[in-house]
């Protein structure tokens, strides 16, 4: 088990759970929400995004396909006395999430091309972008009309492809942050509905 610092809070990171890195911190820095909103943290890992949301007053549902990540997020929420604000469950993307809508959805997806390791923390499918696309296909069904979705994109797996995907789903977007590293650039997307969309049930 490792320990990391986030906003002066100590978080524990269990073995086999994604240790927060530049992508996690860049996403957290750029997610701003109002107190009382309903948020979904997809692929919660050790719970860093949930904690960031809950510290701003959001009520959070955190999900991850990795059972250890689920346990890790529960542990960090308890340690910081945020367990009344953060509910955690295991889910393969949206498969175990009841039909409901959120004000804010955040996702720091795995995005490396699949290797023989089969590591769900970092591998996003054959080419790397498939997990993000699967998420984007369903995400609008869970987003309120005036809701926002923040997610991380790496230049390694196609900024233009993601823009095209969002457009094909009738979603508008802004790029709210970029950070360059030696071998890639990390990009934070903020996606939202521009008009009354086909996903709306009202
Ligand atoms: C890059 S890590 C991000 C972890 C954490 N949110 C952060 O920002 O540090 C991606 C997370 O997505 C989870 N994940 C991978 N595939 C998933 C799936 N199909 N459904 C839900 N979570 C998934 C992984 O287990 C991992 O915790």
Plain-language structure description:
With 202 residues, the chain is an alpha/beta fold. The protein has one domain (21-193): Vaccinia Virus protein VP39 (Rossmann fold, 3-Layer(aba) Sandwich), CATH 3.40.50.150. Helices cover 24% and strands 31% of the residues. It is built from 5 helices and 9 strands, in the order E-E-H-E-H-E-H-E-E-H-E-H-E-E. Strands 5-4-3-6-7-9-8 form a 7-stranded mixed β-sheet, with helices on both faces. A two-stranded antiparallel ribbon has the order 1-2. Strand 3, helix 2 (48-55) and strand 4 (59-64) form a beta-alpha-beta unit. The longest helix has 13 residues, at 67-79. It is globular, with a radius of gyration of 16 Å. The model has no long low-confidence stretch (mean pLDDT 93). Residues 18, 20, 24, 27, 43-45, 48-49, 63-66, 69, 91-93, 108, 110, 120-121, 131 line the site of S-adenosylmethionine (SAM).
């Amino acid at each position: 088990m490792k320990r990391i610092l986030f906003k002066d809070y100590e978080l524990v990171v269990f073995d086999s759970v994604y240790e927060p890195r530049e992508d996690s911190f860049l996403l957290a820095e750029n997610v701003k929400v109002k107190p009382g909103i309903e948020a979904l943290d997809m692929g919660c890992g050790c719970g860093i995004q949930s904690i960031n949301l809950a510290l701003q007053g959001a009520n959070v549902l955190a999900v991850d396909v990795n059972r250890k990540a689920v346990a890790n997020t529960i542990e960090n929420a308890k340690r910081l006395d945020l367990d009344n604000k953060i509910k955690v469950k295991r889910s393969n993307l949206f498969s175990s999430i009841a039909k409901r809508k959120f004000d804010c959805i955040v996702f720091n997806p795995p995005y490396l091309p699949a290797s023989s390791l089969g590591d769900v923390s970092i591998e996003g499918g054959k080419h790397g972008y498939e997990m993000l696309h699967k998420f984007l296909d369903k995400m609008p069904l869970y987003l309120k009309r005036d809701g926002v979705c923040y997610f991380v994109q790496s230049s390694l797996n196609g900024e233009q492809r993601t823009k095209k995907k969002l457009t094909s789903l009738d979603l508008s977007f802004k790029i709210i942050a970029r950070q360059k590293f030696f071998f890639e650039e990390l990009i934070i997307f903020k996606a939202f509905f521009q008009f009354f969309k086909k996903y709306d049930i009202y």
